[in-house]
Design brief:
6 strands; 56% helix; four-stranded parallel β-sheet; alpha/beta; 227 residues
């Protein structure tokens, strides 16, 4: 009779997420009991993304154990096992090659022909959903930048009074004009930073200017002028 090896994962290591780990473990143990199977071990990765498999020690231990014993790797859902198709399929193929089985409770995936088909379809759909989310975020950031809305740190030359909308800072805009003028005259980034420091002009952080911070400002505004 095959033994069950459970695997649980949460992305955050906070105390709140412990409830999720306990729930996953309970579901796995309940399923094993309903099938008359023994749970050999339940492995847990807390606070680790599911994007990769090689940086999750508990997953590697679970895979080593289940393949050596030709047992059943049981997870609460496919998302706990992997966050992209490549990783999910690689894990599935490793289990199949070793004669071990995979069960995902949420998607009702097992080692039958239909279960394998559903597994691959779910993996592809999960990957597609992740790509769509990334695309939506990128589009939102592009739109916010086009509307001059804040998307991260407040750039030098701008202020953000209401927490969302960016408005020009006249004094800093004058400094930027001087920076662009010095750059056009052939001064190095280091020389520009030194000149600003000697004039007592601070960066947005309140610190002295650094060549790299000068480069960022000059590049940003040079691109805006070119556009």
């Amino acid at each position: 009779m095959q033994k069950v090896y459970g695997y649980c994962r949460v992305s955050l290591a906070s105390q709140v997420e412990k409830t999720s780990l306990d729930a996953q473990r309970s579901k796995i143990e309940a399923w094993a009991m309903s099938q008359g199977l023994e749970v050999a071990e339940v492995y847990t990765d807390a606070g680790i993304s599911g994007k990769r498999a090689d940086n999750r020690p508990a997953l590697q231990q679970a895979l080593d154990a289940v393949t050596a014993d030709k047992g059943i790797l049981c997870v609460y859902s496919l998302s706990r096992l992997a966050r992209n198709t490549k990783t999910a399929i690689a894990i599935s193929e490793r289990l199949e090659k070793a004669g071990a089985d995979l069960v995902s409770l949420s998607e009702r995936i097992d080692n039958s022909a239909s279960g394998k088909m559903v597994f691959k379809m779910m993996a592809v759909l999960a990957d597609f959903e992740r790509d769509q989310l990334i695309e939506r975020v990128r589009c939102s950031l592009t739109l916010m930048k086009a509307k001059n809305l804040r998307t991260g740190r407040i750039p030098y030359g701008m202020d953000c009074v209401d927490g969302v909308n960016l408005t020009p800072n006249a004094a800093e805009q004058a400094v930027i004009a001087d920076m662009l003028d010095m750059d056009a005259k052939g001064l190095s980034l280091r020389d520009i930073a030194k000149a600003l420091t000697l004039r007592g002009i601070k960066a947005k952080s309140g610190r002295d200017w650094h060549p790299e911070s000068v480069r960022i400002v000059v590049k940003r505004h040079s691109l805006q002028v070119a556009a």
